[in-house]
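thought: fold this chain, then report.
action: predict
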Amino acid sequence: MVRICVIFGCGNSTKHIDKWLAQLCEVHGLMFGSCVCKPPFSLFPFPSEKKHPYRRQAWVKLVNRKGTDGKNCKPQTYSRICSKHFRDGEPTELNPDPTELLGYDLISTSSKGKLPRKPPLKRCSPSTSEKLEKAKKQKADCPEAKVPIPASFHTKIETEDYQPEYTPAVDHSYGFLGNDCTSCKSKNDRISKLKERLNHLRTKSKARSKCSSRSYFSICNIVLKSDSSVNSYTGIQSRDKFIAFHNFLLPKVAKMRYWYGCKKSSPRNTPRGKRTPMKRGPARNLTAKEELIMVLMKLKMSLTMAFLASLFFVSGGTASNIFTTWIKFLAFELKPFILWPDKVQVLTSMPPSLKKKYPNLRCTLDCSEIFIERPRNLELQALIWSDYKHHNTVKYMVAIAPNGMISFLSKAWGGRTSDVHITKESGFLNLIDPHDLILADRAFTIKEELLLKQATLEIPPPSKGKEQQAPEEVGRTKKIANARIHVERAIGRMKWFRIPKDTLPITLIPLVDDINTVCAALVNLRSRLVSL
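observation:
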């Protein structure tokens, strides 16, 4: 709020003090804001009505500002009186009231004293011919044009070096250099130093503008610094593997089309039916390597979009569009890395420990769950509630080959869905061949479905309603548990990426299948889970 002096004709306010603070002090060579010089005036508020009512009424009478009703105006919260109207420069005990330059001798500008305004005169713009005639007439009437220049003046200029009587050296930036004033010299010295500083900053800014602002703080340099940093930030084991992975995706990234929402797509620059080798839509804010690192950091560290946007110098909407586009693109490109091997491949890559126990083993099954935020719809809450986890979850099934590679991954279902229903609806049973052996948990009661495929199911013996198992059942349970531990380890590798380990936001629920696919494919790209 601008505080202004209420004395008629004064107009001193805090705006003038702000302008004064932004000026340079001639004596000390500093800005007035950091200088010891006092301001040109000070503003004092009216006395309080509770503590000094009589003094307040005296100030109001001395100000004598009349309102429309003819009475003295009441002071507002922004009403002030500057120091120029006090005899001592401020309210003191001897002179507590404003008595100087109260503006009584000025003409009142109230609405009653105003004279009616005269209507403006109609003026016609003169034509170009009239302007030329007027200019010729003024030139002819000019007395300087009629004074002849003596010939001796021209000869003097041609023969001698003409020098005027007073030719001060003018510095167009500020003042006269020829002046012997100490203040002017100090000002000129200060100006020359500021000019040198400005030129230095300009050259420095030109050098910085040649390279991007991200080159001084490039997240790529931090992530790709060493193998350990690549592993901790992206989930890929080494720097060489990341570069090879980036080079594998780079030819297809150029044609990638970015996601802009369900109702909005990227602009089509070419007619329908014609394709261009370049990417459609606007130019990239980031390079392909930076976008890939952003997506992998989101998967590995579960960072928020706002933090990633500030880290990569983009907006939150741009970061979200990049993540949605890349996660779908990576899921499409990496899905072939989750393959179902045939029997010959399974037998050649089976570890000796499992080959002795289960020579016909084809895969091991298990289900895992991801915590998600609770939706507002009560029906959806009931569908995704998990009695096992006591949380809203989505459930998916994982099958691994005997060597530990993830060979099958189902779509995500609500946490209320049973393991048997996911197994039947996922299409897993269509991959089973005769004489296959499937290891699973007690919840996978699919023995009859596997018998139709001429396959067998190996699950731990039931323990419900029994106080103690028989020694044979204990040995069988231990044998199956030693073989099934590898599927738990594979799911644990998938949850090295913190985004399926933490609570998934509602906005990422449509991408949960793509996220699981990318995490499972990146797990398969790592070293072997089960050693031979």
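thought: worth noting. The chain has four domains: 4-85, 177-210, 221-336, 340-524.
final: tokens above.
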